[in-house]
Amino acid sequence: MAASTSAGIAPAPFGDEHGPFLCGPYAPLGDEADTVLELRTGALPADLNGVYLRVGPNPRFAPLGRYHPFDGDGMIHAAQFAHGRVRYRRRWVRTADFDTESAAGDAVFHGIRETLAGDRARPLKDSANTDVLGFAGQALALWYMAGAAYVVDPITLETRGTLDAVARSRGGCGHISAHAKVDPVSGELLYFDYGAEAPWMHYGVVAPDGRLVHHTPITLPGPRLPHDMAFTARYSILHDLPLFHDAAALARGRHKIAFHADVPTRFGVLPRYGGDTELRWFEFTPCFVYHVVNAWEEGDEVVMVGCRYVPVSTADGGIDGVATAQQIAQLVMNARLWCWRMDLASGATREYPLDAERNVEFPSCNGQLAGRTTRYGYLADQHDGVVLQWPGLAKYDLVSGARLSQWSSEPAHSWYSEPWFAPADAATAEDDGYLVAFRLDARDMRCTLEVLDARDLGRGPLAVLDLPGQVPVGFHACWIRAADIPAWA
Ligand SMILES: [Fe+2]
Predict the structure, then answer these.
(1) Into how many domains does the chain fold?
(2) Residue 188 falls inside a structural domain
(3) In whole numbers, what is the pLDDT of the chain averaged over residues?
(4) Facing residues of 191 across strands?
(5) What is the distance in A from the centroid of ligand 1 to the CA of 144?
(6) Are 190 and 205 in contact (CB under 8 A)?
(7) Is 453 helix (H, G, I), strand (E, B) or coil?
């Protein structure tokens, strides 16, 4: 498909008979684009060079039945900041399943809400629609259910195949979950997969030259639905959460989930190159965790800061597991910034909210300090139950929990993409840089790219640029520095 530009809102290629998530802010685009953005207000910082990538679902063909945002083909939107101008591109990730449907000229795969054919399971599409991250000068597009690691040129957005190291693991059937991590010091990719077969999880390390340098099974009590992981300079932290697939439904290929209020949340601390027997599990109060902000070591303690999903309460103050699972399945997010501490010497644990009041998610920090002590976190702010609508941005002190600054343009109408911290070219402090995000204004469905001063979000955008049409609501983003991209020009 040839690249093209669109001057206005691209029409949704199909109607709303498949449910609410193909309309309005979620409406997919029917084309790709490559254009230089016009500055609406402000001025672009001269010391901001790199690329902001955001991936999300964008079905190319009309779905077969009911549609869920997890189903759509992954499309990456890129804003390349170079020499005082911004070039915007969007392209589908050319996954094997995208190519299969393209060859057929129609949808072939059913979505997660249509997984049963009689008593038989229908295969889901590995869409690479969930997360995008920078690894070894390239971008990886990843899928939440654990699939292939699609390698994408971070500038042109051309798909270059899959990461061999992951594909060769597990005897050639290796997968990678959406939230893998890259150590900024070693350049290694740390990842896990999960699935419906024992031992239920695997963990691996890929060197920046592409070699698989470590891979081990991780034995869980059964099939689980972990979403993220964390790491420190010496350890990886794996998640065993009380959110399970319903075993009987899963055996029939149906993706029904249950939250078990009587089962603790466990985090497993593993030496980076350790095996299953070296994993130490630490128990915490039952919760689901979508996303980690960062983790680090403090003496004997491993500290992890993340967004703790708030279970739905019953009238007597207990946990309503059914309602909690339904909320999670429906992508209604209700999370609090939280700290978990694990003492490797004593085995003791502590956990506490950093902000017990506000609903925040889609976090980032200074990626140059991933796995190391960080003071600042940047999050999408104050979700109010509308699926994937985040009307603001917030900066937190990850130690005290103080809300340091915040920003929203017209919060009643704003839909921000996952904000990502972009360091200044010659940064001298942890927050010396910018926060970058797309913003959709639901009043006219116009999209802008906003650049804020990470030291004080309350100043408002330093620069606002107009986008050619809508960036549909999506999932995760990243920032890749120009200095980390060999092909930068
Ligand atoms: Fe995620």
Answers:
(1) 1
(2) yes
(3) 93
(4) 204
(5) 7
(6) yes
(7) strand
279 belongs to a structural domain: yes
Residue 471 lies in a domain: yes
**Of 479, 475, 480, 296, the residue nearest 398 (C-alpha):** 296
Domain that holds residue 449: 29-44+170-175+184-484
Q: Structure tokens of 354?
A: 């950093």
Amino acid 279: pLDDT = 97
Q: Per-residue pLDDT tens for 178-211?
A: 999 999 999 999 999 998 888 999 999 999 999 9
Q: What is the pLDDT of residues 313-335, one digit of tens each?
A: 999 999 999 999 999 988 899 99
CA of 331 to the centre of ligand 1 (A): 11
Q: Please give the distance, rounded to the nearest whole angstrom, from the Cα atom of residue 290 to the centre of ligand 1.
A: 6
The alpha carbons of the chain give a radius of gyration, in whole angstroms, of 21
Identify which of 267, 354, 233, 240 has the alpha carbon closest to the alpha carbon of residue 305: 354
Tell me: pLDDT of 12 over 80.
no
Task: Report which of 129, 122, 135 is spatially closest to residue 148, judged by C-alpha positions.
Answer: 129
> What is the pLDDT, as a whole number, of residue 254?
74
Render pLDDT for 206-246 as a digit per residue (tens, 0 to 9). 999 999 999 999 999 988 999 999 999 999 999 999 998 88
Instruction: Name the token pair of 129.
Output: 């629609």
- The vertex-487 CA angle with 58 and 38, nearest 5°, equals 55
pLDDT in tens, 429-450: 999 999 999 999 999 999 999 9
Distance CA(416)–CA(308), nearest Å, equals: 20
DSSP lists the bridge partners of residue 350 as 341
Distance 38 CA to ligand 1 centre (A): 31
- Is 60 exceeded by the pLDDT of residue 7? no
Which CATH number is 205's domain given? Answer: 2.130.10
How many whole angstroms from 487 Cα to the centroid of ligand 1? Answer: 28
201 Cα to the center of ligand 1, angstroms: 17
pLDDT in tens, 74-120: 999 999 999 899 999 999 999 999 999 999 999 999 988 887 777 66
Domain annotation covers residue 247: yes
Cα 2 to ligand 1 centre (Å): 30
